[in-house]
Design a protein that fits this description.
This is DUF177 domain-containing protein. It contains 1 helix and 7 strands, in the order βββββββα. The chain has 162 residues and is mainly β. It has one domain. The relative contact order is 0.17.
């Protein structure tokens, strides 16, 4: 998505308010699926070095719980703080500003969003997960498996106790 910044280009500390939705494609290898476009509410401020972008991203997605493997809906409001420099990056990083009157925010938004999302999703902080022996979802019911794990090195000695 491109935005015209010609109104603030040569005026230090001037701002443009942005309020838009951006549709992000699901990654085929990901365990998350965006259920609706990401709503972005931000302000671009001109600085001596380029432009600062501050605001928030409202994201809704479907994810799989890390502990119980149950799908659930995840919603969060994520802060957005980034900057775009007036000079070209020689480090091989993506350049979001081409020196003209337009700024490109698709990759910047996607990068900030994906780096801010949790690495592992939990349906609930108190999620008990699944039983490692029988696979029962411990949030729904208890299982009759032994709750004490046996050290595999000592499991042979258990036969002598029978």
């Amino acid at each position: 998505m491109r935005f015209d910044i010609s109104k603030i280009k040569n005026t230090l500390d001037s701002q443009i308010n942005l309020n838009f939705d951006i549709t992000l494609e699901d990654d085929d290898n990901s365990e998350i699926y965006f259920t609706e476009p990401v709503h972005v509410n931000a302000v671009i401020t001109s600085t001596e070095e380029g432009y600062d972008i501050d605001g928030f991203m409202d994201v809704s997605l479907d994810a799989t719980c890390y502990r119980c493997l149950r799908p659930f809906h995840y919603h969060d409001i994520i802060e957005l703080h980034d900057n775009i420099n007036n000079y070209e990056e020689e480090s091989g990083e993506k350049v979001f500003f081409n020196g003209g009157n337009q700024v490109y925010l698709d990759d910047l938004i996607r990068t900030n969003l994906l780096l801010s999302l949790p690495a592992r999703y939990l349906c609930d902080e108190a999620c008990r997960g699944i039983c490692p022996d029988c696979g029962t979802n411990l949030n729904d019911s208890n299982c009759s498996c032994s709750s004490e794990p046996i050290d595999p090195r000592l499991e042979v000695l258990k036969k002598f106790l029978k």
